[in-house]
Design the sequence.
């Protein structure tokens, strides 16, 4: 949400207004209690900060770089499409 928003690294409705926790939980399709517990854990781990204008993702650039490097990795080599068949010939999996 922070990447898609107007003001990265913030998760907010606009530059001066935070999304209500109930709205965020609904948008993420999770219970409100789970969102609030997760935010508290993330605050304790210095992953996010929160004030009346929104939730700020700390180290935002770092997380974006990690995501970009994951996307840049080549896909795993496909498994061998053929195996040795019952009578010695190769057959398609």
Sequence:
């Amino acid at each position: 949400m922070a990447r898609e928003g107007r003001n990265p690294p913030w998760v907010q409705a606009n530059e001066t207004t935070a999304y209500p926790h109930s709205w965020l939980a609904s948008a993420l399709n999770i219970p409100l209690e789970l969102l609030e517990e997760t935010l508290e854990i993330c605050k304790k781990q210095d992953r996010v900060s929160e004030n009346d204008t929104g939730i700020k993702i700390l180290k935002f650039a770092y997380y974006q770089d990690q995501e970009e490097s994951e996307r840049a990795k080549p896909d795993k080599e496909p498994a061998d499409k053929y195996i040795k068949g019952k009578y010695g010939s190769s057959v398609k999996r």
About this structure: Residues 10-92 form one domain.
